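Quarterly update from the structural biology core.
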Amino acid sequence: DGGTGLDAIGRLRAVYGQDLPCVLVTADRSSEVRTAAGQLDVPVINKPLKPAVLRSMMARVRALATAAE
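Predicted structure, tokenized:
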């Protein structure tokens, strides 16, 4: 629909709860995106990314979500 990844995260969290673990993967390196992601407590990984970085981030996010349960 032309929205951003952060828009999608906002919609998903509205349905599934604010504690839904998310990671934003983006090529946008602007401070505006990082600030907006920070306000939503969403970690950011910039493209291009290495698979190991994604695996590490997903493991961290999953561990935090599990600890919060």
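Residues 5-68 form one domain.
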